[in-house]
Design a protein that fits this description.
Layout: H1 20-32, H2 37-45, H3 53-82, H4 90-117
Helix pairs in contact: 1-2, 3-4
């Protein structure tokens, strides 16, 4: 959506009648999007669908988790190469590695889907 550079006339407010619950919900959604209530309602009324802060934070957390799992997988592979047969059963470690790789692929799929949505 293009930014509207038009000067707004503060003597022409738009009156919207809402219930107490609706007002609280609108205020909460505006806060979640880091917007004033006026900016939020104006943007939504003009067809812009703001993304919540939660969506962005969730994506950041998924990306961090994906990176952490990658590092864990790397460490396990290194352990297998350098200390083969020491400690845990190699079959168990390989099973854990497969689970990590599977979860990483799923996380990557979710992140890409959500990134496109945002």
């Amino acid at each position: 959506m293009e930014v509207n550079r038009e000067v707004r006339d503060r003597n022409r407010p738009l009156r919207v009648v809402v219930s107490v619950g609706e007002r609280a919900q609108i205020e909460a959604m505006a806060k979640e999007c880091r917007m004033s209530v006026s900016a939020y309602l104006r943007n939504v009324g003009l067809g812009f669908q703001p993304n919540s802060r939660f969506d962005r934070e969730a994506i950041r957390n998924l990306v961090a988790l994906h990176a952490d799992q990658g590092r864990l997988g790397g460490l396990l592979k290194l352990w297998l190469a350098e200390r083969n047969g020491e400690g845990a059963n190699v079959r168990d470690i390989r099973s854990v590695l497969q689970q990590i790789e599977s979860l990483q692929m799923e996380l990557a799929r979710i992140v890409m889907t959500e990134k496109k949505r945002l």
